[in-house]
Structures are given as C-alpha cells and as structure tokens.
Specification:
The protein is mainly beta. It folds into 2 domains: about 140 residues, Immunoglobulin-like; about 220 residues, Jelly Rolls (Sandwich). It contains 2 helices and 27 strands. Strands 2, 4, 9, 10, 11, 13, 15 and 17 form an 8-stranded antiparallel beta sheet that branches. Strands 8-7-6-5-12-3-16 form a 7-stranded antiparallel beta sheet, with no helix packed on it. Strand 5 and strand 6 form a beta hairpin.
C-alpha cells in the first residue's frame, strides 16, 4: 500500500480542478466547423458512445430549405457517414434529435428524440450509444429515445474525416450547428445511463482504452491522442455555460494483452474512479465474440506480476498471484460485440482515497489457438 500512497502524492496535481470552461460557437446557415483526420479510435468495432454538452437555439434555424444542424459526424462524404449526432430540422424547423449509425450491412438506423421548443437553450448533455443492436439517446444522463435494429452488427468503418459542429459539405452552412458544443467524447463501447450521468459533469483527461476527449478550451486539438483539429469557415471559442470539473483519473497499465488472438483485449473505465461513484465499472473491449467465449473471469489484486512469474495456459498474468484479493466469473463472458463489463460501486468513505487495485480480464477463447485462452492488459486505478 505504500506504493499506492506515494503515487497519490506524486500525481496530486492530476486531481479535480475547475476547468477553463470554453466551448465552440456555430450558427446554422453560416458554414464552419472542425475537421480531424481519420483515426481508428473514431470507429470502434465494439460499440460506441458519443457525448457532448451543447446549447441549441431551435427558434433561429432557417426554414424553406433543408437544414441538418450537426454536433459531430464521422465521414463527411455525402451518404457515407458511419455515425452522426444531429438535429434533423428539415425545411420547417423540426425539433428531432437523432443519433444515426451505419451498420456493417451498410444500412442506416437511428434513434430519435423529439424535443420541445427551447429545450436546449440552457446547457444540455446529450449522448448517443450503440451496442450492436440498440441505439439510445440520453439527455442529462437519462435515456429519452431508443431503437432496436434488426440483427446484430458493428459500425461500418468507412474511414473518413471526423467533423465537429457540421455535417457534409453539399450545401455549405445548412448542417452547421446552431449554438455551442463543449467536451465532446467518443468511447469504444455503449455506456450505461448511470455511467453517463456519473461523468457528464467532468472534463476527463487521460482516460485509458482509447477514449477521445475534445475539450475545446482554447484549442481544437484532442490532446490525449494528438489529433489535430483543422477549422474552416466561421467558428470560435466562447465561455462555456456548462459547469464542468476537470479530472485526470489515476490509472496505470500493467503488463500487456495477449496478442496472438483474433482480437486484442484492452481495459478501460466506464466513468472516473471517484469516491461514492455507485456506477463505476471496468470494461474489457475487443474481447472474444460471444460465440467463441464460453467463460470469462475478472481478477483483482494488489501487486504487479514479478518477472519470474510463469505464464498461465500461455497467458501472461499482469498481477502477482500472491496478492489476489478477489475474482469473479463472467457469464456470459462478453456482450454482443465482444465486450466484458464488471461493475464495482466505489465507497464514499474518504479513508479509501488513494486505495487502488490492479484488474485483469481473462477469457476462454475458441478462436485463440491451441491453448484457447486470452487475457487483457492489467490496469491499476486509484480512488480519488
């Protein structure tokens, strides 16, 4: 435990603080937005959550022509979007928020939330999720719309540019957002309503497992993964009305995932490991697909594996087997798209500050060679 406490001291500056709180401002009818070159993290094969704080003035969206004010869209080529979070105003100012996904069958589906006039004038948190079968929309951490697609599919990865604050370029300005956008995030799984609510008031930096976070605080760049934003048209920074607290979770990767299998599993968190977070959970994304995994296990330990510790059925354990404190079977092992989730409500007792655990997920995997086992990397997190 001495090591964990020293880590808390060493990383004290990474704790909670009031954020700079800026946002980007756009106007429907006036072309503008931010583009990011394609990165695989924009199109996870394991489901997705796209979220942002927004304001939106539906009363000033023009009519007479078709308008589609867009928060963010993956692939700006016409009729080639893989996902899209937008208001489908049409030609008469309709108030229809949609989260649209394109499946690997090349079919478009969407969940739709018909909102009231002026409903988004005040800062509102919006999130769209897709788990391979169900598309959901959440407003301020509460599910408000859902759509179940026929069958089970991953997102169709058509590559392309990620555009924030605008959509395709066919009619410049008609897909520009009409308000502000702040703290846009893209997660490699469909998060729960509780997880979304637990972190929506936080400006998160350095989340493990390939989470993209666009803070929009004086820079358009996504700094965790060095994604450079290129602006066009009319766009600028304004003070954000969303009261966010900046937080950098204290996490440390231990060991490496099994790399000889069809998929390489990786650990991430569903929200920040803060005291009292009853919706905290760990995710293993890119685990074996359900048809290949009869059994999964998650193990918690205090110590990292020594170099002398031998592999177990060909799997390198990230933890010291002498420091294991708990283990739990995962039945079923993974979800529709090969993810595993382990919920771990965190205590609110301040004495747990700085206490940490090292977790690793393992799976029986029929598609993983003659030994038939695979494992994620290990991930240590400290409670804050």
């Amino acid at each position: 435990m001495r090591t964990l406490k020293s880590l808390v001291v060493a990383f004290a500056l990474a704790g909670a603080a009031v954020s700079q709180n800026q946002a980007i401002q756009l106007t429907t009818g006036v072309d503008g937005g931010v583009d990011y070159a394609y990165d695989p993290l924009m199109l996870p094969a394991t489901g997705i959550t796209v979220e942002a704080w927004v304001t939106f003035d539906d009363s000033t969206v023009p009519t007479g022509f078709y308008y589609w004010p867009t928060v963010a869209r993956q692939n700006v080529n016409p009729n080639q979007e893989s996902w899209n979070l937008r208001v489908s105003s049409g030609n008469a100012g309709a108030r229809s928020l949609q989260f649209i996904i394109r499946t690997t069958a090349n079919a478009l589906y969407s969940a739709t939330y018909n909102f009231a006039a002026g409903e988004f004038l005040q800062p509102t948190h919006l999130a769209g999720t897709f788990d391979g079968q169900t598309i959901r929309i959440h407003k301020n951490g509460v599910q408000v719309a859902t759509y179940v697609i026929p069958g089970t599919y991953a997102l169709n990865n058509l590559g392309g540019t990620l555009r924030v604050g605008n959509g395709d370029p066919v009619a410049p300005g008609r897909e520009a957002w009409n308000g502000t956008i702040d703290e846009l995030r893209v997660w490699p799984m469909a998060r729960t309503a509780g997880e979304i609510a637990a972190s929506m008031g936080q400006e998160l930096a350095g989340m493990p497992g390939g989470v993209l976070a666009f803070h929009m605080n004086g820079t358009y760049d996504e700094t965790d993964h060095n994604l450079v934003g290129s602006t066009f048209g009319t766009i600028g920074f304004v003070p954000s009305q969303a009261a966010l607290t900046s937080l950098a979770p204290l996490t440390f990767q231990q060991g490496a995932a099994t790399t000889t299998c069809t998929r390489i599993p990786e650990l991430t968190l569903g929200s920040a490991p803060t005291l009292g977070n009853a919706d905290f959970s760990l995710y293993c994304v890119r685990g074996p697909l359900p048809a290949n995994a009869n059994l999964g296990v998650v193990i918690a330990a205090f110590g990292a594996a020594p170099g002398s510790q031998p592999p177990f059925f060909g799997v390198n354990l990230a933890f010291d087997i002498n420091t294991v404190v708990a283990q739990s079977l995962l039945l079923p092992a993974t979800t529709l798209l090969g993810n595993a989730r382990f919920q771990l409500p965190l205590p609110s007792d301040p004495s747990f500050t700085g206490v940490g655990f090292l977790f690793q997920f393992g799976f029986q995997d029929a598609a993983c060679g003659p030994q038939g086992f695979t494992a994620s990397n290990g991930l240590l997190f400290l409670m804050q």
